[in-house]
Amino acid sequence: MVGEALKQLVEILIDLGELYELFERPAAGYDTTIGFDDSIAEDAASEMNKQIQLVRAELTSRVRAIMKVHKVLEKEAIKILNEIRDEYNIASPEHDEIAKEVSFWGQKE
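Structure (tokenized):
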């Protein structure tokens, strides 16, 4: 739908150009083609994957990763991280108790 709307916009601009004698329609006709570039979405996905890998490898903090992925300042990133933690705790209230009992290596502290 967007492509068709853009093609119609080009046609309107050509009509206006002819009307005000600013532009002459090509005698041989023309084709309007619209090419949508998905590289922006791909770049966003690759940045997200990069940040996930950096967090997993403990090479960056979750706050910094959120800042990069969501393009927000640190204060907003901290708010987002707290919301994520709150949602996780609601879904799994025993998480805090488990975290107190089990260290990273699976032994009681």
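The chain has a mean pLDDT of 81. The longest helix spans residues 2-19.
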